[in-house]
Protein 1
Amino acid sequence: MTFREKILNIVRKIPKGKILTYQKVALLAGRPRAWRAVGNVLNRNRDKEIPCHRVIKSDGKIGGYNRGIKKKIALLKREGIKIEGGKIIF
């Protein structure tokens, strides 16, 4: 299985209303220092079945999203994630 496939499989399993960081996804995929690569893989993903919006930055900031930040925020809020000032409220 390629690194890309590992990332997409991990993200596919993130339940609704939950989030992971890019760093955690990299760790789970076996490459703990490859969080930027995780972001690049997710940015290129077009499969709507893979909830890329559920992956955020380690500092709680939203991070990027290939369908736009406003869409990512709306999706996260719809799933019950609290966001204030552009950051996730844990």
Protein 2
Amino acid sequence: MALFKFEDRRPRVSQGAFVAESALVIGDVQIGKDAYIGHGAILRADYGTIQVGEGTAIEEGVIVHARPNDRTIFGNHVTVGHGAMIHNAQIRDNAVIGMRATISDFSIVGEWTIIGEMGLVKSNQNVPDGVVAVGVPVKVVGKVDKEQKEFWSYGKRLYVEMAHRYLTPGAFMRID
């Protein structure tokens, strides 16, 4: 794992969580049980705090930061798509953040809310629970339905399984 202490701030990783060797986890980052932190992700909590909930997947290339003496918080079973950027925001349980989306300062993404690919949740924007929001900035275009919840529940289980598979001795190893 690529965990780095910064001054007196150090990461804490719970049992069953996977942090890729190429990810950078710096400072006061708390990673919950069964979480997945993908290759090339950067979680930098050198003067803020980052909390990653249980079963949450922070996929490859995601950038996460928090303002001084503030927090970026991911609830449980959140999915953050490849290349997204999250800065000093709250992402509630079961939310889905699309690939390359940006979630900006002091914004809140509600429980079971889906933010579309490349969407922008602007500073101080509150996206309510259980909706689909897309665009720049995002606008609500519908409600999350049963089929979407079933699809994303399946994907969330896959990433918990993937975290465990990566942690299995001999499963993931450099071969050159």
Protein 3
Amino acid sequence: MGACAEMSGELSRICDITAHDLARIHVSYCNDDAKRTKGMHRQRTQKVWGHTAHCGWARLLLNRARVLIIHGLAHRGANDAAMPTDEDDQDGHFFFNHPEREGYFAA
């Protein structure tokens, strides 16, 4: 899932398979239309996965903000340590948005 909770084609296919199995079980107990039941289960599954993705993204942003407050540039300046420069600030923003590249540029 992406940053805006967009899903890949593979995840959409998994959702379709899940909805198909849930609809098959539902239709075996109830005398409902299989196609309509599958659509209902697909919509429910996408809704739950979308909410989970948004909650995960919000949790990631809150954790990153917490790390920046505790260990970030503002914390260093408050302790009379070296004040951050513009260059430090640019690196901080880059690695905040791209955490997977943090060790990539290290010499």
